[in-house]
Amino acid sequence: MKCVIIEDEKPAAEKLISLLALSNQQVYVEAVLGSINEAMEWLQHHPTPELIFMDIELTDGLSFKIFEQFNIECPVIFTTAYDEYWQEAFEHNSIDYLLKPIKPEKLDAALNKYHKLKQHFTANYQSLSQWPATQPQTGFKKRFLVKRGTDYISIKAEEVAYFYATHKLVCMVDSSGQKFIMDQSLADIETQVDPAAFYRVNRKYLVNMSAIKRIKAYPKSKLLLEVVPLVTEDIIISQENAAAFKQWMGQ
User: Fold this and answer.
1) Do 221 and 246 form a contact (C-beta atoms < 8 A)?
2) What domains are defined for the chain?
3) pTM of the model
4) Once rounded to an integer, what is the mean pLDDT over residues 130-156?
5) Cβ atoms 3, 114 nearer than 8 A
6) How far apart are CA 197 and CA 160, in angstroms?
7) In sequence order, which residues have a C-beta less than 8 Å from that of residue 50 and are 6 or more positions away?
8) 72 φψ region: left (φ > 0), alpha (ψ -120 to 50), beta (else)
9) What is the pLDDT of residues 40-86, one digit of tens each?
């Protein structure tokens, strides 16, 4: 198994490499990358590894920024000394969250989880690939029950303009501009809505196609999205996600 380590502390990276060498899995470390910039440079010029071990607090910022620039498709095991990032970590391909100092048994459990997931999806790939393209998709959420004051109200999915994450909260904004706090993560909501109608444009916004007012070119081949109701910040679609987004818009 080929992996990459993103870690800015040399002793921590060396310790992880030694633990991997003693683990019950055959792991080959392709690269040790010490910053966000170094990681993005490497990912731009190399094939995606099978697994990434990623520290969160790096010298040039939080490693979550990497996901804004690259569509990382492989699983990630986060390794950090802090426990406050676990929820955001599991919105970014995370299959485990290991606290430093990493214990050998925790690392082995994480590697075993990776292999079990790999075996599961490999075994089911053939049946998934043979699923009829015309098969109607069902089971998507049609309504969301939200709270307003002491009352609960039901909002139709098509009336939702977008969902967004802010300060460890997730909010829904409907087409009339009303805002409601959700009790689910953005990643969970993404799995519940119809992907033909909603698109995760970046790590912060999940947008309904009907709410998109304008798409503008942005420097470095990115896109700038304007939505209604309006937001006070720029909604940027990364270069790596731009092509998939435009394909989705034209489906």
Assistant:
1) no
2) 2-123 (3.40.50.2300), 143-249 (2.40.50.1020)
3) 0.53
4) 77
5) no
6) 10
7) 1, 2, 3, 74
8) beta
9) 999 988 888 999 999 999 999 999 999 988 888 899 999 999 988 88
